[in-house]
Design a protein that fits this description.
Distance between the termini: 30 Å
Strand content: under 5%
Mean pLDDT: 87
Radius of gyration: 23 Å
CATH topology of the largest domain: MetI-like fold
Largest sheet: none
Number of strands: 0
CATH architecture of the largest domain: Orthogonal Bundle
Number of helices: 13
Number of domains: 2
Helix content: over 70%
Shape: globular
Order of helices and strands: HHHHHHHHHHHHH
CATH class of the largest domain: Mainly Alpha
Low-confidence stretches: 1-11
Length: 290
């Protein structure tokens, strides 16, 4: 194998990831990101601790939250040194993973069939659109009545919003495929399942992964609402109980932890999408060269 071929193989694996990371470091994106965080934290510090603005006067300051978060003996009982902190994180992550996995399997399947078959869509889509606008909190009483225990209702409520976002984007992706590809496949003798497998599914993937990025974010804020109502562990439970027990720094710690974990899960979905759709990345790159 020649040297160019060897380098091409290397760039398909870890080398490609490191190359993209190096390009990211040499771009203005990481520094603009740091600037955005600096502005946000600076405004928080100044408005609460220095200026003491009326609307921010009762909020916990940046210094107080950081000291509590990093303390080995926190005043309000929750910091990075307390095992309970990681129990809450794990409880939320586990629930989101289960709900997101179920929403991905069922939502992608339903969306593909609705986008592929007009008759199936005529039967299912009106019911789908009737249920989709119902807020998650409105499902809470039924979820508690239908499902036993405290874990299953939380997962079900988290699943609902994620499922609708995934199914809708997948349906739009299937409907966006040019019908000429389908007609050409039938003219070449392809069967329905072959058209579905080789045209509908690959052609819908960009919309599917866009929907999954939306879905994972929707799953997190649905989870927090569910944990506030019926959870016993989790970041939503932490935020709700901290409010009722007047532990305001712990509220901020729970919110920041939620943002960090949510960002990581969204990034993992994006990485998975880029890995499974390398053909799409190459297509966009070639399109930009024209």
């Amino acid at each position: 194998m020649s040297k160019p071929e060897n380098s091409a193989v290397e760039l398909k694996g870890i080398g490609l990831t490191m190359y993209r990371f190096a390009q990211w470091l040499h771009s203005p994106r990481p520094y603009l990101m740091l600037l955005g965080y600096t502005i946000l934290l600076g405004f928080w510090y100044l408005s609460v601790e220095i200026w003491k603005l009326p609307r921010f006067r009762d909020m916990p300051g940046l210094t107080e939250v950081v000291q509590e978060w990093l303390s080995s003996d926190p005043i309000y009982g929750l910091s990075i040194f307390i095992p309970e902190y990681y129990q809450h994180i794990w409880a939320s992550v586990r629930r989101v993973c289960i709900a997101f996995g179920l929403a991905t399997i069922l939502g992608v399947a339903l969306g593909l069939f609705m986008g592929w078959s007009r008759r199936f869509k005529e039967y299912v889509f009106p019911l789908f659109e009737t249920l989709r606008p119902i807020p998650i909190l409105a499902w809470v009483p039924l979820a508690i009545l239908i499902f036993a225990g405290t874990e299953t209702p939380v997962i079900y409520l988290t699943f609902l919003a994620s499922f609708f976002a995934t199914a809708l984007n997948t349906m739009l992706g299937a409907e966006s495929i040019d019908e000429s590809y389908v007609r050409a496949a039938y003219c070449l003798g392809a069967k329905k399942w072959q058209v579905f497998r080789h045209i509908i599914v690959p052609g819908s993937l960009p919309f599917v992964f866009t929907g999954l990025q939306i879905s994972i974010g929707v799953a997190w804020f649905s989870l927090v609402a569910a944990e506030m109502v019926s959870g016993q562990f989790g970041l939503g439970y932490v935020i709700n109980t901290s409010y009722t027990m007047v532990r305001y720094p712990t509220i901020i710690i729970g919110m920041l932890t939620l943002g960090i974990v949510g960002y990581i899960t969204s990034a993992l979905v994006r990485v998975a999408g880029d890995h499974l759709m390398q053909w799409r990345v190459r297509e966009l790159a070639l399109g930009g060269q024209r």
